[in-house]
Amino acid sequence: MRILVTGASGLLGLNVALEAARGGGQPDGPDGGHTVYGVVNRNDLRTDAFRVIKADLLAPGALERLFDQTQPDWVIHCAALAILDACEADPDLAYRLNAELPANLAAIVARGGARLVHISTDAVFDGVRGSYDESDAPNPLSVYARTKLEGEKAVASADPRAIIARVNLFGWSLYGKRSLGEWFFYNLQAGRQVMGFTDVYFCPLLANHLAHILLQMLQAGLSGLYHVVSGECASKYDYGVAVARRFGLEESLITPVSVMQSSLKAARSPNLTLCTDKLTGALGVSLPTLSAGLDGFYTLYQQGYPQALRAMADRAAGNL
Q1: Number of structural domains, the chain?
Q2: CATH code: domain of residue 180
C-alpha cells in the first residue's frame, strides 16, 4: 500500500510512519513494508525508513499537489494543533488546522477513492461521568476539543467511508517533549519533583501499538467513528507512578494533587475513560493494556529508540 501520513514529525504521525514502513497492517512490498510518505512542516526530519515531504498543508493548492505527488491508497491524518494552551491562545489557527484542514482533506480523499483515518481525541467529552461509548453526545470544554469535534463532523460529512478515531496516547517523540510518559520519565530521571493529578482519568495507548491498530482498521475495511484507547485506564498520578516503577525511578518525587490546584489555562475533562467494545468487536481482538504499553515504552528506551528519533531531526539540521 501507498500510505500518506500527515503530521509525520509529531508524536503519533512519526510512530505511525515508522510502524507502517516496517510492515504494520498487511505488508505488500518485497521488504515486507509499505511505501510511506510522511508530511512534515516546521519540524523537519531525515530518515531512510520513509519518504519525507515538507509542506504547509494550509497553503493554497498544497493538498492537491500532495495527492498528485503521492497517489496514496491510505491516508492517516495526524496533523493538528494539539497543544491545548496554544489553541486557547490562537483559536482561529486551531480552527483552521483542526476543522478546516481535515474537511478539505476528506473531500479530496473521497474524490480520489483512497481510504482515510482521521485522528480525533477523547477530549470531545466533558469527563463528567466517564465510560463513554460512540453513541454518547460530546460536550467539549476547550478550544482544542471544540475544534477537533468540528473536524470530526466535517470529515464524516465529506467522506462517509472515513474512519474517525478518538485516541489518547503516549510514547517517544522527536524531541522528547510530546507525551506525558516522556514528561514523567525525563523529570524523574533528573530527580525533579512533579505533580500527578489524582482526579483526572485516561486510557492511553502506546503510540506504536496505536499505529498498528489503525493499520489493522484500514486493512479490515472499517469506517465510521471508533474509540481507540487502551483497555486499561488510570489516574494521571497512578500512571506517573507506573512509569516510575517500570523504569526503576523514585516514585516519591510525584506529588498527588487535584487538577484544580494546577495553573493550566485550558479546561481538562476529569474522567475520559472510554468504552472500546465497538472496536474490539469489529476487529475481534482485545486492545493492549496500559501495562503492556508501559512494557513497550520501556523496551523501546532500552533499544535506543528515543535517540534514534532525535537523530532524524539532527540529520535534517545538519548536526549529524
Answers
A1: 1
A2: 3.40.50.720
Question: Dihedral of CA 160/122/176/84: which sign?
Answer: positive
Domain range for residue 288? 2-316
> Could you report the per-residue pLDDT of 40-90, keeping only the tens digit for each?
998 899 999 999 999 999 999 999 999 999 999 999 999 999 999 999 999
C-alpha–C-alpha distance, residues 145 and 97, integer Å:
12
Query: Residue 11 and residue 208: Cα distance in Å, rounded?
Result: 10
DSSP per-residue codes, 176-192: S-SSHHHHHHHHHHTT-
Q: Which of 274, 117, 294 is nearest to 208 (CA)?
A: 294
Closest CA to 232 of 206, 202, 210, 199: 202
Q: Give the pTM.
A: 0.94
Residue type, 292: A
Strand partners, 194: 254
Using the structure block, give the residue that is written with the C-alpha cell 482521521: 118
What tens digit of pLDDT does each residue of 195-206 get?
999 999 999 999
Q: Is 62 exposed, middle or buried (0-12, 13-18, 19+ CB in 10 A)?
A: middle
The C-alpha cell at 315 is: 540529520
